[in-house]
Amino acid sequence: MNRPNWMTSGANQSNSADKSRSKQLRKSSKRPASSGGGTEAKQMRNAQDDQDECMEDVSTSSDTREHNGLLENFKNQPDHSQRAGASNDRGVKKKLVIKNFKGSSTRNDGTENGQNEGGDSVEKDWTVLSDNVFAILEDRKTSSTMETLFSKVRAVCDRNQAKDLYDRLVTIVDNYAKQLRESLSSVEQVPLLTDNCEQYLAKFGSIWESYPVKTNLIRNIFLYLDRIGLTVNEVEILPLWETFMKIFKTTFFPEISKDFKATKLFSALYMAMQKMMDRHTVDSPLRALIEMLQTVHVGEEFSGFLLTQLREFYDRERTEKVPIMTCNEYMTYAEDQISRYSSMVKKNFDEPTALRDVQSTMMTCLIQQAIPEILLHDFDALLSSTNTVDISRMFNLCRQCPGGEDEVRVQFSKYMKSRGDQIITTCPDNDLVSELLAFKKKIDFIMNGSFKSASDSTKMRQCVSDAFETFVNKNVDRAAELISKHFHTLLHSGNKHVTDDRSLDHMVDDAIVLFRYLRGKDVFEAYYKRGLSKRLFLERSASVDAEKMVLCKLKTECGAGFTYKLEGMFKDMDASETLAILFVKYLAHMNKPKVNFNARVITPEYWPTYEAYEINIPKEMRDTLTDFQDFYRLQHGNRNVKWHHGLAAAVVSAEFREGCTKELVATMYQSVILLLFNKCETWTVAEIVECTKIPEVEVVKNLVALIGGRDRPKILKIADVESSAKKDLLDSVKTGKFVVNSGFVDKRCRIRITQVNIKTPVEEKNDVEQEVNQDRQCNIDAAVVRIMKARKELPHATLINEVLQQLKFPVKAADIKKRIEGLIERDYISRDPDDATIYRYVA
């Protein structure tokens, strides 16, 4: 099993020992027999100063403070030689000469007696050293000073007994470690449970608390052996600190091997960590024991054990909680577990990789393996709540797993399509666009608040666009019609929701977003053009600047070709303003009275198709129309003018009774009908049609508007009210007699008569569809001819594909095929004589 390497060995003591062994210390020359005690003591003090500096590197400050008594054993003992040397050197500057050490300190005499004396000296030195080592291990007061012990170690090493001294020291420490192990047997025999794991950890912690301090102090005594004495041996030997830690490892962790699974200490540590996760207070040296595992080189095994236990535990947790929890509840639980465990790992582990591995394991068990199922549990409810905190928690957890962000994006797309289809299906026409805009704002709120941390924001935005395109274009014609009517409402002068230009601009931007998702933009153009013509002709536009601002945005979205006709409508309106100024000058030049008259001259190519009727104009209006026609012929070389009276408007001054005079803003047809009541008090539909030559449909429609209703002014009324009340409104209008409503009351002086559209929505849609189909046929023909002119010869399938790529509206391949047949009949293209599936361009 490959275990993570986030608890590698690296204790401060071993690192310092390795560094210190690399230093080049010089060996002093053989001391002469005539040397005085003061000089020898001084040399010893210098060597002692060096080793004291090294001891500062290798000692552990916290442990040393806890066991100051061990060091005090050396500090309290007097050193007569040092005092003598110090007193002799006072006030006298002496030159200290340090010569290199020799490989061995053999005597020159080489006699057998000298060798015996050397062996006896080594044994005496070892006796002193061993006594003091045992005193340290047994917490007793040492019998010699640190300088004395250091000198004896050096003396033994100089007699080539370094290896023997090393082995004897290791044996003592090994026996001491075994004694510590035996002291642990009292708690080893008790079965480990969650309730008693702290007692076991406390006992183990007390053992480790003294072991590194005592062994480090022993190592300081044998520092010469560790750094210099062992370097002259041909056999490579571990440094003392490494050896002491290895002894501890083999004594307390003998079962560590490749097939290792767990030890009692590992299980106790895991139980203590689980108790902390259950919010219980744990009184045990958890951090110290984890550092101990790292120091004795078993941290890697513990890391593997811990990750295995976490994997098993959270696999069980996931299996139990996913089926019974909602998405939000489970994500809250998972975040809490990961956050608390991460805090505990930060507190007790030094290695940063420990935190990363624990988080990775928990993310895999709790999130990655739960994503396919948990995102199906009330995921829609989580998004519908628009709680950015909960949604962000879910998204941030999922995106840290491989493929998690993609899975969230898929479920997010399903939610948008499902909710969008519901809106399209259930909402009435009047509320559809407002509901879609509210839903889009909700999605934008989630995107900006919760999904802003997405690793691939482009894919997330594309997901939103694809989902909206899917349900907005479920019924393309309906969506295009309603969005265009929404623009008409925004730009109409009667819109009460627009307070200033800034709010209007914001609303237009929102509507443009929906327009961007439309595939049938030519249908939108047809409806928008009809609404724009009404606003311009009836002067009901909120602002010309607002109208041009919308055109600019549409041009940015679809190009200049899309707004070509709409811009032409404004050009006609500007040209009409110029003509009105010239017409006033013309009347003055012809010595005719000035009239309040303004004609709109339009180009049929730009405007919707309107039906024009020749009607009998009252004399009050006829003269002015004739004057303008003469003026226009004079300006444009005898061009004829065709009047569209159905698009005209007039202001009629009406006196309902004495003292009740109002100005009525009416259409041309309404004005002509009202002027008839100057001739006769009562009129029927048939009589009005015969007198004015206005089509009956238009007469009925305008009479309904003049009759009014609950919220509309009642200019006319039906004479026989009782009989008309029993009939349908249209039947009453067609058969009833109309008179002026002499009891008309209104606070306003100028009253606008609202138009009534009797034409059914189906008929209007058919008119628009017919107009759109004509434009589409022309666009298909132009695309086919343009492609064939460039390619000269193409197979049928290739031509169909290239035409579909160029067209910006949805079209079927069968419709393209019909247009190709028409172009063949008109000799724009021809079929290949040998292969009928290949078309050729006819120049």
TrEMBL record:
Gene3D superfamilies: Cullin Repeats, Cullin, Chain C, Domain 2, Winged helix-like DNA-binding domain superfamily/Winged helix DNA-binding domain
Pathway entry: Protein modification; protein ubiquitination
Cell inner membrane found in the keyword field: no
UniProt-listed GO biological process terms: ubiquitin-dependent protein catabolic process
Compositionally biased region (Polar residues): 1-17, 102-115
Residue span(s) of domain Cullin family profile: 478-707
Molecular functions (GO terms): ubiquitin protein ligase binding
UniProt-annotated stretches for the region Disordered: 1-122
InterPro entries: Cullin (IPR045093), Cullin-like_AB (IPR059120), Cullin_CS (IPR016157), Cullin_homology (IPR016158), Cullin_homology_sf (IPR036317), Cullin_N (IPR001373), Cullin_neddylation_domain (IPR019559), Cullin_repeat-like_dom_sf (IPR016159)
Keywords, sorted A to Z: Isopeptide bond, Ubl conjugation, Ubl conjugation pathway
Origin superkingdom: Eukaryota
Gene Ontology annotations for the cellular component aspect, listed alphabetically: cullin-RING ubiquitin ligase complex
Family from the record: Belongs to the cullin family.
Name this protein carries in UniProt: Cullin family profile domain-containing protein
Organism: Caenorhabditis nigoni
Classification lineage: Eukaryota, Metazoa, Ecdysozoa, Nematoda, Chromadorea
